[in-house]
Specification:
This protein is α+β, with helices and mostly antiparallel strands. The chain has helices spanning 2-8, 53-64, 66-71, 84-97, 119-123, 163-179, 201-208, 229-236, and strands at residues 22-26, 29-33, 41-46, 74-80, 99-100, 103-104, 112-114, 138-143, 149-155, 193-194, 215-219, 222-225. α6 (163-179) packs across α8 (229-236). The structure holds benzoic acid. Residues 48-49, 52-55, 157-158 line the site of benzoic acid.
Amino acid sequence: MEQIQEQQAFIMPRIGDPAPEFKAVTTQGEINFPADFKGSWVILFSHPADFTPVCTSEFMTFATMEEKFANANCKLVGLSIDGLYSHIAWLRTIKEKIEYKGMKNVEVNFPLIEDIKMDVAKKYGMIQPNEDSTKAVRAVFFIAPKGFIRTIIYYPLSLGRNFEELYRVVIALQAADEFKIATPADWQPGDDVIISPAGSCGTAKNRMEGKEKDLDCKDWFFCTKKLDKDTVLKKILKKV
Ligand code: BEZ
C-alpha cells in the first residue's frame, strides 16, 4: 500500500495526455475537472502553501491579470495542499491587507482547490519528493478546450513564475492551432512564424529556389513567414 502511494507521487502526466479527471472543493464551489471547463483553455497551477510570500506575490499577479487571460478564452484554477478555510482566510488577507508592486485590494475570483489529501496533486505530478514531500511544487498545466494537456512547466518552491511568459504560452499555443505554424524562440505576436519543414526533396528545392513567394528560407529546413500582429490578435482575443 505504502509503495503504491509512493509511486502515485511520481505519476507525471505528459504533453498530449488527456487532463486527469477529478472532482474537488474550491473557493468558488465544487468543480468537476476538466469537464466544467470544456470550450475554454485552462491554466491549472499549484503553489506550495497559503500564507507564504512568493505565493502571495504570484496570486496577486495572476488575479490582476485574470481578465487578460479571460480575453484569450483562458480560465485559471489554483491548487495547494491546504484546506478550504485556510484558502479563504489567505485570500481575505490578500484583499484586505496586502499591497505589493502597486497592486492592492486584490480579489482572487478564480477557484483555489483544497487538496489536503494530495489526491489532485499526486495525479498531476505536483508532489516532487526531492523538492518537498508535503508541498506542491509550482506546476503549470496548459489545457486546451477539448481537455488535452498542451504545455507543462514546473518551477521549484523558491522561484516565482513569470506571468507574462504564461500569457505568451497561451497566445502562442492558440496561434499554432489557428494558423498551423510554429513559433520561434521568444516569439511575440507580430514576429515572423515558422512553417513546417519541407517534407520532400521537391518542396525543399522549390523553397531554396524562392518559388514559395511568401517564405523567407534560411535553409531548406528553416523557413519563416510574416504573420501580422492584428491578424493573430483578432483571431485569438475576444476584444482587441
Ligand atoms: C513562498 O511561497 O514564499 C514559499 C513557499 C515554500 C517555500 C519557499 C517559499
